[in-house]
Automatic annotation (TrEMBL):
<protein>
    <recommendedName>
        <fullName>Indole-3-glycerol phosphate synthase</fullName>
        <ecNumber>4.1.1.48</ecNumber>
    </recommendedName>
</protein>
<dbReference type="InterPro" id="IPR001468">
    <property type="entry name" value="Indole-3-GlycerolPSynthase_CS"/>
</dbReference>
<dbReference type="InterPro" id="IPR013798">
    <property type="entry name" value="Indole-3-glycerol_P_synth_dom"/>
</dbReference>
<dbReference type="GO" id="GO:0004425">
    <property type="term" value="F:indole-3-glycerol-phosphate synthase activity"/>
</dbReference>
<keyword id="KW-0028">Amino-acid biosynthesis</keyword>
<comment type="similarity">
    <text>Belongs to the TrpC family.</text>
</comment>
<keyword id="KW-0456">Lyase</keyword>
<comment type="pathway">
    <text>Amino-acid biosynthesis; L-tryptophan biosynthesis; L-tryptophan from chorismate: step 4/5.</text>
</comment>
<dbReference type="GO" id="GO:0000162">
    <property type="term" value="P:L-tryptophan biosynthetic process"/>
</dbReference>
<dbReference type="Pfam" id="PF00218">
    <property type="entry name" value="IGPS"/>
</dbReference>
<keyword id="KW-0057">Aromatic amino acid biosynthesis</keyword>
<keyword id="KW-0210">Decarboxylase</keyword>
<dbReference type="InterPro" id="IPR045186">
    <property type="entry name" value="Indole-3-glycerol_P_synth"/>
</dbReference>
<dbReference type="InterPro" id="IPR013785">
    <property type="entry name" value="Aldolase_TIM"/>
</dbReference>
<dbReference type="InterPro" id="IPR011060">
    <property type="entry name" value="RibuloseP-bd_barrel"/>
</dbReference>
<feature type="domain" description="Indole-3-glycerol phosphate synthase">
    <location>
        <begin position="4"/>
        <end position="259"/>
    </location>
</feature>
<dbReference type="GO" id="GO:0004640">
    <property type="term" value="F:phosphoribosylanthranilate isomerase activity"/>
</dbReference>
Amino acid sequence: MNILDRIVSKKKEIIAESKQRISQSELRSLPYYHASTCSLRKSLIETPRPVGIIAEMKKASPSKGVLMEDYQPTVLFKKYKEAKVEGISILTDQEFFQGSINHLLQIRELTETIPLLRKDFIIDPYQVDEAKGYGASVILLIAAILEPSQYQELYLQAKELGLEVLTEVHDQDDIQKVLKDFTPEMIGINNRDLTTFNTSIQHTHQLLGQLPKETLLISESGIHSHEQVETLSNLGIKGVLVGERIVKAANQVEAIYELVGKR
Ligand SMILES: O=C(O)c1ccccc1NCC(=O)[C@H](O)[C@H](O)COP(=O)(O)O
């Protein structure tokens, strides 16, 4: 069983438990479920930076273990806001990343204008309602863990709720799957091979030519230097999703400026 299989298997158990605690109709009565959301796509298109940054909040990961002992999302939020990030990715998976859906809510209560990505392994419509109810503006749909019909169902549900969707691909099979019926609004190319955990931004370069021009392209994982960001910008990438480099920095504001410049 690879890491994604293990995550998905655990996720099914967690979703079943969550449904016992709070029903889907209860999620639909949460205040943010009916609130309007801000647009990550717009924020990335309109940024004066050559490439926009989606700064990630994560305490730990399967590949790197604990990244930040004293992990406080609200403290990180102040830094990300000061650095004027174009979006924030919040890990809500508890078992493998030590995140929580409550972290999303905590941050949503601090901002109405910074787009918030619910970063999780979404496989069930319950999680889309949950994302909206807890204040997300965008959800991540990972092609590798979804059947084409499931992908389409979750995508359409998100759009009906006014959420945006970041579709994650890692290889040609993923690309074929997500381009089957429609063009996704934003595609994230994951540079991390989840079987080996190796990352290489060359991966973005290799897949780029197979993606439609009208989709907004984001490069994810293993981005640590301004040089890499410049390379990605020259390839036409509009956003970079960065976790480890920022979370582990002594000064997160400086780390973001170093990567993408001040604005
Ligand atoms: O990072 C992992 O170990 C991992 C393992 C299994 C599934 C997903 C995983 N990472 C999620 C991500 O996509 C990253 O958190 C994100 O792209 C940021 O990456 P990085 O800048 O390298 O921290």
